[in-house]
Design a protein that fits this description.
Structural class: mainly alpha
Radius of gyration: 38 Å
Helix content: over 70%
Family: Belongs to the PPR family. P subfamily.
Number of strands: 0
Largest sheet: none
Pfam family, one: PPR_2
GO biological process, one term: mitochondrion organization
InterPro entries: Mito_RNA_Proc_CCM1, PPR_rpt, TPR-like_helical_dom_sf
CATH class of the domain at 10-172: Mainly Alpha
CATH superfamily of the domain at 10-172: Tetratricopeptide repeat domain
GO molecular function, one term: mRNA binding
Number of helices: 45
Length: about 800
Amino acid sequence: MRALALVPSLPLWNDLLYEFNASGLVSQVKMLYSEMVLCGVVPNVYSVNLLVHSMCKVGDLGLALGYLRNNTVFDHVTYNTVVWGFCKHGFVDQGFGLLSEMVKKGVCVDSVTCNVVVKGYCQVGLVQYAEWIMDNLVGGGVPLDVVGLNTLVDGYCEAGLMSRALALVEHSRKRGIKPDIVTYNTLVNAFYLQPTVVTWTTLIAAYCKHRGFGEFLSLYEQMIMSGVLPDVVTCSSILYGLCRHGKLTEAALLLREMYKMGLDPNHVSYTTIINALLKSGRIMEAFNHQSQMVVRGISFDIVLCTTMMDGLFKAGKSKEAEEMFQSISKLNLVPNCVTYSALLDGYCKSGNMKEAESLINDIRSKNIYPDVFNYSSLIDGYFKEGNESAALSKVQEMTQKNMQFDVVAYNTLVKGLLRQGKYEPKSVFSRMIEMGLTPDRVTYNSVINTYFIQGKTENAMDLLNEMKSYGVMPNMVTYNILIGGLCKTGVIEKAIDVLNEMLVLGYVPTPIIHKFLLKAYSRSRKADVILQIHKKLVAMGLELDQTVYNTLITVLCKLGMTKIANMVLMEMVTRGFSADIVTYNALICGYCTGSHVEKAFNIYSQMLVDGISPNITTYNTLLGGLSAAGLMSDADKLVSEMKERGLVSNATTYNILVSGHGRVGNKRDSIKLYCEMVTKGFVPTTGTYNVLISDYAKAGKMRQARELLNEMLTRGRIPNSSTYDILICGWCKLSYQPEMDRALKLSYQNEAKKLLREMCEKGHVPSETTLMYISSNFSIPGKKAEAKRLLKVFTQKKNL
């Protein structure tokens, strides 16, 4: 380029300076820099820093310092480089002295500066002085980081002060600096000359709590290779690590291996694995391990009992959880604050608020007073129950006791108020900041979810961007809410964009996201489109399990695509998953949707042969199929079979039966079932009321039909367009009767007109049949067609 009289640009010069410096050709850096200046290219601070770094590397410290002090182009990196150069070559005091010069010139002293000086003093053996310097710099506002921690830990280990190194790690953790792999490796290397089982166990325990799955297992292998055998505490720590990473099968295997190694698992070992099993919903396996404890004579303590009780509540086994609490006194154990908190939270989450209040009174009598966590549980429980006044009374109680809200309590309150529609999403954050609280993911997730419920998609997406701008990154819950909300509003392209963003951040699709997207794509009613998004999600990392296959089969069956659903079932079975109640119910639904009732019953028979007990959904689906086919005698037989199996009819069952009998003209059975239904506290759907009202209308019993309408309104059911069509046509037909009293005829016509007006005001459009009856009833003889046309125009305009 020079031979052609071409002068390289500054970025090209900088690239060359960097490559020469990185390659160790330091002398070439000086020559190249001089050549650049001679060419008239003005160096920037990056060029200067490369030059200074090359000088420091070879020990030209005087030249580097002179260049720094006599040049106007420099920044904090330049100073850090010169400080590094002095420390690297053993002139630590001179390097440290430059810090005061940096402060005078207003150059930032950052964590890099601090770490370089600390490392310099550690290298010359002055570790305690290095720690003193770090404490002073951190006290002056320099942020502490894990690099500085590792430097000091290495210094203390080199000096043989192992206890001080461990104490420093623990102290730093309390200050929010978590040890990393370098920290632990430094400690391992330091202890290498005198390893004991206690040393290894301490390190393994730390790895299990803070590091990845492979890392603590690698450390365990190193321990075995060094000839140190694990003890019960070591294995319990590894059990915790395995459970923390969801490796429950491996954890159970390790528990068995412990016995083979001559180690007897203690209550800590069993509590760890039982807790993990309960949290993952594997109740029977958890109880099996509990039974093993009994057989092996391992005593239960309050921690295990509390863990079991809490896990059972979270798994939806409230009765078993209460029985576990009752067993505490039988074991002569005394419940503690954690036990009572878990019990209270369990009652609140299961909706048993009477027991929750009773428990609060009980623990107060024992001089144990509710804390913020307990109040959060109560507030959440009352909101979920729909008892807003009781929830707010607890908030008032907290205020009267000068109890400060924490983020969890505030999120609970906000979530409840948002769910009730009694809180403006925009005011959530301002109020929170007033209280001195910082919004977290839960806060943002609650408000984003509320925006989606309100149909405010843009607000939800704007809040997502705001959330990220404040450094609060979305988690899996956030992405579930976002993709679910976007799919429900039909914005599938945006949902896919969010899905791609989620993948970039290292998350993989979950079964709930799979469900949202499949339902959204099923609107196309095209099997290939549904299967394509399913395969795409699997390729993105979605784990194929029973739930995923069932979702795909259910979506296909709801569209009547039973042939393709059966192909998916075959694939599912080949992968080792057997059809369960959800699978069978989906296939039965698919065949009933396609009016193949006989095939639906074939699936039902196969289900019984396979030992799967039908549930109420199974029977309701079959009853729906029989009802649609008008086979009500068969439906009655199936109800009898259902009752023999101990299942009780629910609201859906009654709606199907009442409507079915009504449609085939079994008016007596229909009314009888309706009376039975309302007596049991069930409220018929609008569709069921329409069938009953239609029966009365066909028989000309319009007063009874009107009474049924009033009852329907009283029970909170809203009439739809079909309801109005049935009633209007019924009154019109009644007024057609020959030789009817004029006043009576006018009253019938007035009923029809009143209902038509009400129908239009509520935004419903009359059917063609209704328009025909109205026009026939009110038109001048010979003008029926014109009256119908004008009426149609009028009713459509009313609804614009």
